[in-house]
Amino acid sequence: QVQLVESGGGLVQAGGSLRLSCAASGRTLSNYIVEWFRQTPGKGREFVARISGSGSTTAYADSVKDRFTISRDNAENTVYLQMNSVKPEDTAVYYCAARSAFDRNYWGQGTQVTVSS
User: Fold this and answer.
1) What is the DSSP letter of 28?
2) Of 45, 46, 51, 71, which residue is most buried, by most CB within 10 angstroms?
3) Measured in whole angstroms, how far is the alpha carbon of residue 6 from the centre of its chain?
4) Beta strands at 111-116 and 10-13: parallel, antiparallel or unpaired
5) Rounded to an integer, what distance in angstroms lies between the CA atom of residue 36 and that of residue 111?
6) What mean pLDDT is reported for the chain?
7) Residues with Cβ < 8 Å from 74, sequence gap 6 or more?
8) Which residues of 79-104 are buried (b: 16+ CB within 10 A; e: fewer)?
9) What was the pLDDT predicted at 42?
10) Mind listing the pLDDT tens digit for each residue in 28-52?
11) Mean pLDDT across the stretch 15-37?
């Protein structure tokens, strides 16, 4: 079992920055691809970013490319999402998810990010 706990959400002004953390326990996170998703009321979960187990490969949604950076510290069993130049449309609940070909998917409980204009 992998337990994921997101933190770092909050209220930020447009143009500001925020760093989200996804801390894992139970298993070694380096064995999992980790993704960030976000969800707003009435909409499905939207992919935001992905990072490979080693951290060597990343991918981003077009809406956040060049503003958000995903990274991981496998020694700390934690994945980060650095959010820069945030916009009101980035307001959402952000979730991290871990997946592996050899295990089921795991999700965190989410952290609220609110961007004021």
Assistant:
1) -
2) 51
3) 8
4) parallel
5) 11
6) 96
7) 28, 29, 30, 53, 55
8) bbbebeebeeebbbbbbbbbbeeeee
9) 85
10) 999 999 999 999 988 889 999 999 9
11) 96
